[in-house]
Amino acid sequence: MNLDSKQIDRADPCGWCLYCKMHRLPFPTEERERAENLGDHIHGDLGMVSVPTPEGHRYYSLLKDEFSEFTDAQLLKKKNEVSTHTIEFCEKVKTQTGRSVKVLRTDQGREYRGERFEQMETRLRDHPPDNLPIQPSTKWSKRKIQ
Asked: Measured in whole angstroms, how far is the alpha carbon of residue 114 from the centre of its chain?
């Protein structure tokens, strides 16, 4: 079989060829602020278990401190229980280390919005721990708590 290179150049690619050659742009390489102390940045996520536990738990909440890599997990029956777990975790960090959580990073899920989180932010804004200034959050993915 003899193929002419001019014919190959003019061939139109099919839809699947274009789809398979697509790629995502790389993540931005900008430097982001790293945690320098316990509680500076907490990463939170909510997941769903494939089979509910005998007690009826269908979800789990994970909270991880970026500096120490300490991870706290809790089984939940409802998604809205994530606020209780998060607030208890922030209070535990304050009690055990004397440092307050500064930033909570999440995936912008609706479970991280709501009255309980707004009450926590308002309380911390009105009575900031360690007398540090509070800057209001502009994005849900990076919530400044203090």
From this structure: 16
Strands 41-48 and 103-105: parallel
Token duo for residue 117: 């989180």
Long-range Cβ contact pairs of 44-49 (< 8 A, separation 24 or more): 44/82, 44/86, 44/104, 44/105, 44/106, 44/112, 45/106, 45/107, 46/76, 46/79, 46/82, 46/109, 46/111, 49/75
Look at the block and give the residue holding tokens 């959050």: 137
Fold held by 33-144:
Nucleotidyltransferase; domain 5 (3.30.420)
Give the per-residue pLDDT at 138: 36
Sign of CA dihedral 135, 102, 112, 88: negative
- How much is the pTM? 0.63
Q: What's the N-to-C CA distance of the chain in angstroms? A: 71
* Residue 144 confidence (pLDDT): 55
Q: Domain boundaries in the chain? A: 33-144
